[in-house]
């Protein structure tokens, strides 16, 4: 009798195990297929949500000015953002095109002239002698220099071409994200209610508090990282355009990328300063140096003003997020990675600071409705 009971129980266990495995397998397949379908939209939707959270205070102010028309306010902000993206593209493209045409004409005429390096270049520690040698070779015998460094030039040109293609794709992604953000902002009330409900369901009693913390972190990082990077690159770019620095638009873009990645703008500015001292007179180069250094160091004033609003994110967190995001998702990852990692950092720190008593009370509060519903 016992053997028959054990055999029956074993058969039921195997049957339940097989049925559970089939259900889990089907659910896993459904999740994988769903992920493949939504994968192209994850980054633009996520970035659109981040932009919507950051711009929501401005949208509400604009809504009041427009007589309560939130949809119109969101649309205006989205179109303004698209215009802000398009105008620099036109300027940079025009600058690159004009530079390419001028360089092609000079190569065809054989009139390319590169200023010789000064002794100050050779006096630079570690790299001065090598830099002086290479620079002097290009200045005195361009054809021989090009032939000598042809593999490096081809590799650099290929890298730049790939980078330009990636930049164009990123800009298009930004435009799509802005339109998605407009939709989020236009329906912000229902979206906020849904986020609060999901947060409370997932986290528990502190869900709404964590959702508010996430929104504050998004605004802080976008203002303190992206905002500062934009202002800093505009200031440096303005100085370079005023002093007619070659390839000023491209250098400004590099400064912006470095600033997003939390790398010092001086890494980009110092070579330009060396060029100005070799190509211009001392007075012009000194004035340029003072102005561009002030612009490069402006982040030390801007960050405390824009980032110190409720949350304080350590720079290593931003740096790892920006670099990791760029590696995984391209240029847009510079923005997205910093924001996402900052959110996780703030949530983790908040969770660590919670006392065991608070966590136990939260768990009991989450379980109370279920117990009451069972008793009913």
UniProtKB/TrEMBL annotation:
Assigned protein family: Belongs to the autoinducer-2 exporter (AI-2E) (TC 2.A.86) family.
UniProt keyword annotation of Zinc present? no
Location of the protein in the cell: Cell membrane
Protein name in UniProt: AI-2E family transporter
Instruction: Name the membrane topology term.
Output: Multi-pass membrane protein
GO CC field: plasma membrane
Signal sequence interval, chain numbering = none
Q: Which UniProt keywords apply?
A: Cell membrane, Membrane, Transmembrane, Transmembrane helix, Transport
The reply to whether Transmembrane helix figures as a keyword in the UniProt entry is yes
PANTHER family reported in the protein's UniProt record: TRANSMEMBRANE PROTEIN (PTHR21716), TRANSPORT PROTEIN YDIK-RELATED (PTHR21716:SF67)
